[in-house]
Amino acid sequence: MTLIGILAFIFILGAAVVLHEFGHFIVAKMLGIRVETFSVGFGKRLWGRRWGTTDYRLSLIPLGGYVKLGGDESNAGLEEGGDGEEIPSEERFDLRPRWQKVAVGVAGPVMNVLTAIAVPLVLAMIIGVPMTPAPVVKSVRQGSAAEAAGIRPGDRIVSFNGREDREWEKISNDAMLSPEQPLPLVVEREGQRVSLTVSPTKELIEGEAIGRLGILPDYGDVPVIVASVADNSPAAEGGLKPGDQILKVDGEAVTSSEQVARYIEEHKEGAVRFDLQRKGESVQVVAGERRLPNGKLGFGPAESYPIQRVGLGEALSYSVSHNIEILRLTGMALGQVFSGQRSVRNTFSGPIGIAEASKKAVEDGGLEGGLRIFGFLSLNLGIFNLLPIPVLDGGMIFMVLLEGMLAWVGLKLSMTVRERIQQVGFVFLLLLMGFVIINDVTKIAARFTGSNNPPAATQQK
Question: Contact, 104 vs 69, CB < 8 A?
């Protein structure tokens, strides 16, 4: 792990956690509830400072954080013993109405979701929004899933996988998560609608199956760039860098990323000469004297969409739809895990995986790349914390609602039962942390002992 990766990981994960805890903190303060501890990390207190009645601390295990509220013992097992100070009843969390407890509980996840919306919103206002092409087919790859399904050049896709008014990004995402699964689509052809079924071709990337349609959309005249370069790949050794515009491949003028992909797949041996434009200068590099086991070079070509400047309303709409698409894809992936269609190992990542993704995002996209993965992580952190697992915010909210339901029938949870539930939840959380860490290590080990295929963030060639 390089220094850039370590710093990116600390900033991205640290900022997401701090903002999450700040949500709990600020709502509790607004309601007059005492905040005894504001901790980044769990376990032994390493460093901190006390301001007023709150101890702001950095703790030993840097895999999360928590806020300790006055009168709330749900986090008592996560820190060293308190100072035993008597807390006035009007500042105690446990004596507050249930709606206030729920408000404090949801404040952290809400802060994360708002952050996830704010990041692409700000970037859209500053940089603009990419203008994606209409879902019109420019060409169909020979022998592809699209050809087998009967899709033709000129077809306009009006419905894909049961959803109408699809965009190319969403069509590609659905196909990527559904290798060899029949997906319904409707195309408009010569003024008529034709119903078809396509089963995306399965392609293995790092042992994980993804689906490809083999369709080239009608992008128009847009530049083709190097979107990503895998570490230690032939492309990296040859000198290809993210952001390079590909002008020619072995002297052949480039008009699409699909053309680049086809050329490399049809020439699985020997070096390939790339004519590039890099920061306004013409550059020529040669890559491919060494090939990956599948014959590829380890880079992702992609079209560089033109950027459109937008106002606040359009930027907000783009940001919300962007986050909804992330949630939709996450839900689809999790559903495939539970149905056995996707492996657990390649679906979940822990701190090592987050660190690697952060490093890659910053190296490829600079500050913008770091901010985008920060927004992505913040969204996932907020949603994860709403799960009804003791110790997490969702567990606390569930306990409050459960107590309310029991109160209707004259029952009450004893402190002993509450403590046992919290202990079980904490053990479960530690086991989950252990699993994702071991999972990360296993995936890294597999890269050294097995396939060296690059990650599937983009279609690698």
Answer: yes
In degrees, to the nearest 5, what angle opens at C-alpha 87 toward C-alphas 84 and 92? Answer: 125
Position 1 scores a pLDDT of 52
**In the block, residue with structure tokens 């034709």:** 194
- The span from the CA of 387 to the CA of 393, in Å, is 7
pTM: 0.75
For the chain (461 residues), the mean pLDDT of every run of 10, in chain order, is 70 84 93 90 84 87 76 61 70 89 93 95 90 82 90 92 81 88 92 94 70 81 86 89 93 87 86 93 92 86 84 92 89 79 70 74 76 90 86 85 85 79 80 78 65 42 54
**Assigned token pair, 221:** 């005249």
Alpha carbon separation from 349 to 113, 356, 376, 438, 440 (Å, rounded): 20, 10, 13, 10, 6
